[in-house]
Amino acid sequence: MDSILLPSEIETYIDTMKPQKMKDLGTIHWFDWHHRLQKLNQEALIEASLLKEEHVKETLVTFGKLNILTHEAILINIWKYKVLPILTSLEPCPESTFIVYSILYHEAVCVALLELVLYHPNCCEALEDTAGDLLEYATSNVSQLLSVKSTEPGRNESASEEISRQKNNLTFDIGIRSLSITRYICENLESLPVSIRSKIYTEYDIPVLFTEIMLAKPWAKDGKLYSGGVWKDWDNEQLGQCEAQVWLTLRQLLLDPECQSYYSLTENRRKQLAKLLPLMKPILLDQLSPLMELNHWLCRMNMMEQNAAPPKALLIEAILEIKDSILKETGGKWRKMATNQLPTVFTTDKSLLTNIATKLSESYNTELLEKFGAESQTKCIKCDKEAIQRCSHCHKAWYCSRTCQIDHWTEHKPHCLA
């Protein structure tokens, strides 16, 4: 199967995208929208996996709909922390958790699609003012990786325990994907509002946040590595995609010529950043050679005797339009909203649930996702290990280390320069 949507369907789905309202979550109308978004996500995954023309990505940019994806992710995130706890307190033992999971999963679908398309610089540029909302959302989810863990279902799990586990597992996956989204934003600061750079260095202090993430390594546990949404066996040496994203983000920010203008190296920041040095072992530098420059920068920073000059003041402050509009629309009446949603979210109408499940059976095509999810995990063209960097000239050949790239150059050269 090379495609699941026709170009005309892609354009229709994207052209009709509209911001949803929190009060409509879980309704039949909302499930129609959820179904379409999942289909778009699957199509985008197939296009990226097969190196086809990325029609979903281009159409999202052409129709200016990336802000809708950001809105949807933030909407569900707010609902997850403001409304869902009240729902579970009103109905601690629901008969079905299917609709709750679908709403939570909707956020993960939005983030997965954003992660896919924001790899391309023109998509980051298309974010425009909503980049501030997405950056705030992504960094908040990244920070969740310091406390939220991915767990397996327990024995005799109650409905409330099942909801809590599903929420945490999806939050963990969203946090992992937010590492990539943050990196893409950081790599395209020149095309984004000037206030974004100040938020990165001062308000969110992403260099220190990502240092804490690197020290915690939430993507690794018990000899396994989290990759592509699943835990895989790991040799404790091979550099995974998650860790590579963190390192490349740190390199981008700390080596940015504008860094010293915005980022004051206080004593506390220097102490935190210095903790990265013991992690930069030869095997890491061999697999991700651009980190050699970061290693030199950290060594020089560690020898500094004085703090750097304070950063320049920010003259223009960005407003989080999406988040503010959602909060204004709901008016903070979370209990009233939960009470109104209770019959819908925890419905006992088996006929309705069956109809919804049937409608989504195609959207939740796990076999398709696993197939193309596995194919999208890039492999080193030389040794077939998981790749973490690609040829900077042709952007097509992937490698696990600089050694493999050098060894493969003679074979790759004719294709690269063609």
UniProtKB/TrEMBL annotation:
The keyword Zinc-finger applies. GO terms for molecular function: zinc ion binding. This is MYND-type domain-containing protein. Gene3D superfamilies: 6.10.140.2220. PANTHER family: ZINC FINGER MYND DOMAIN CONTAINING PROTEIN 10 (PTHR13244), ZINC FINGER MYND DOMAIN-CONTAINING PROTEIN 10 (PTHR13244:SF7). PROSITE patterns: ZF_MYND_1, ZF_MYND_2. It holds the Pfam family zf-MYND. GO terms for biological process: inner dynein arm assembly; motile cilium assembly; outer dynein arm assembly. Residues 380-416 form the MYND-type domain. The keyword Signal does not apply. It comes from the Eukaryota. InterPro entries: ZMYND10 (IPR052298), Znf_MYND (IPR002893). Keywords: Metal-binding, Zinc, Zinc-finger. One of its GO terms (cellular component) is centriolar satellite.
